[in-house]
Description:
Blueprint: H1 2-29, E1 36-45, H2 49-52, E2 71-74, E3 85-90, E4 93-103, E5 108-115, E6 119-131, E7 134-145, H3 151-161, H4 165-178
Antiparallel strand pairs: 1-7, 2-3, 3-4, 4-5, 5-6, 6-7
Amino acid sequence: MKGAMIAISVLALTAIVILAYLHFHSRREAAGPVVHVENGFEFTAHGPYKIVAPLFGASAERVWGEGWNPRFLYPSPERDTFGEVFTVAHSHLKSVWVNTALDLETGHVQYVYVIPDAQAVLIDIHLQEKDPSATDVKVVYHRTALNPSFNAHVTKLGNDDRNMGNEWQTSIDGFLRGNANQ
């Protein structure tokens, strides 16, 4: 167990170093300042915490996240775990994601992803049992452009982030309703 935790920690540290390299390499090539935006949303998922919380793992998100299809690099076989690494296609671009927190006991889930030369994003999710049949969810996005030419796009995405609560709630609640009798 201790060896596995060391391996995961080394993997997470390696991913952070790679992300930092990509970030600083992109900034050196960029002419001018880049933007950083922070926006978030909150909602209540209408399901018990023990059912809702695992839905924020990248693999489990497939059941409610329309179009969400991560390609896992680690672990293999795929499963939601701290330190998971996967890629996601964005039209002609690809992002590299690392899970940096997956603590379902405390309700903290966090991801960092980078689209090289475009943006670095930290997504911080906090979950809390509201009552036995409902879970409060708070999501904050921290987006940084890696190139000034992406400033407007990152700003727009940041503005869009704050409006995602209803979409996430509707999707999660729809999944929960559809599986209530199973």
